[in-house]
Amino acid sequence: MTANVIEVNRLEHSYGSVKAVDDISFTVKKGEIFSFLGPNGAGKSTVINILTTLRKIQKGEARVNGYDVAKESKSVRKSIGIVFQMLCLDHEMTVCENLEYHGKIYSMPKKERKERIEELLKLTELENKRDTLAKDLSGGMKRRLELARGLMTKPAVLFLDEPTIGFDIQTRMRMWEYLREIKREGTTIFLTTHYMEEADQLSDRISIIDNGKIIVTGTADELKNKLGKDLIYLETSDNKTVAEILRAIESVKTVTEDTKSLRVLLGVDVTHVLPLIMEKIRQAGIEITTVNIKKPSMDDVFVHYTGHGLREGEPQERDEGIKTGGVSE
Ligand SMILES: Nc1ncnc2c1ncn2[C@@H]1O[C@H](COP(=O)(O)OP(=O)(O)O)[C@@H](O)[C@H]1O
Ligand SMILES: [Mg+2]
User: Fold this and answer.
1) Do residue 155 and residue 178 come from a single domain?
2) Which element (helix H / strand E) includes 146?
3) Domain limits at 254?
4) What's the number of domains the chain is made of?
5) Are residues 214 and 235 both part of a single domain?
6) Which residues line ligand 1 (CB under 6 A)?
7) Residue nearest to atom 1 of ligand 1 (CA)
8) What is its main location (predicted)?
9) How far is CA 181 from CA 78, 176, 191, in A?
10) Which residue of 64, 97, 183, 261 is 20 to 30 Å from 11, comparing CA positions?
C-alpha cells in the first residue's frame, strides 16, 4: 500500500445541470491533517460524502485507505470515522450509551469497547458527563461526543465536515486541540472548513476549493510565501496615482485598489523597498496618511487565488453571490 491514505483522481459530480465537483485530484498522506478551505457551495461536502461512500461516485476515481470507494465501499467504511453535522446522536441515550452502541454496531469486542470509551471520554473531556443524556449536553459537548463516536473504532481516517461551524473561538480552539491529539495517535484527518484560521492553524496542507475546483494546494506557509514576502496597506491623498507609481517598481508584485486603501504585495522584505516607495510618493507631491505593514495571512491568500473574500460567519444563500471568474495560477 502507498503512503497516501486518500487518493482522488479526476473526480466530477453533478446535481442535474449543476456541476458541484469539477475535475478534482488530490492526495492525503498518512498522518496528515488535510483541509478543504472554501465558501459555501464550493463542493466540499459533496467530495467528503463521496469519500465516505454516503454519495455514489459518478466520475473519476477515489481510494480511501487503499480501497476503491466504488468497488470496496464496505472496506472503506470500516477504515473511517465520520463527524458530520447531519449525523445525529441518539438524544435519549447517555454519552456512554451512545459510544457503547456505536461500538456494538461495529462489532467491537466488549473489553475493547470499554477501554476505548474511557480513552475517548478522557480525550474529549466528557468524563463527568458519561451518564448525561445526549439531549442535555451543550452544543460544544454534543460535537465532542460526535467526535468521540467517530473515533470509537480507531479509524485510519477521520472525516469531519465543518467541525466547528457556529462555535465561539474558545470552543473552536479546544476542538483543534482534540484534533491535534488525534493526529498524534496516528490518525489521518480530512476536514472541510470555511474558517481561514481553522485551515491555517490546524492543517498540515490545505486545498483552496472554489466553484467545484481546487485552485491551489500547499502548507499554510507555502501558500503565504508564494503570495509575497510582505504586504503594505497604504492610504494616500491620491491612491490612483500612487498605484501607478508602485506598479512600476520591480519588487512590487501586485497593487490592489480598495475603496480607501492600496494593498501592495512585495516580492522582497519590506525594509528593502519601503524607503524607495516613500520617496517616490513624496516626489509626486502626494501625502501618505496611513502605512500598515503585515505578513500575508490566509485571508490574503484566499482573496488572491479566488478573487473574492470568504465572508466568514455570514449566512450565505447556496446559489447566490460568490460567483467569480477565479484567478488561475
Ligand atoms: N443534494 C443536492 N441536490 C442538488 N444540488 C446540490 C445538492 N447538494 C449540493 N448541491 C449543490 O452543489 C454545490 C456544492 O454543494 P456542497 O458540496 O454542499 O458545497 P459546500 O459543502 O462546499 O458548501 C452547490 O451549488 C449546491 O447547491
Ligand atoms: Mg458543506
Assistant:
1) yes
2) helix 139-151
3) 229-295
4) 2
5) no
6) 15, 18, 20, 38, 40-46, 318-319
7) 15
8) membrane
9) 22, 9, 15
10) 183
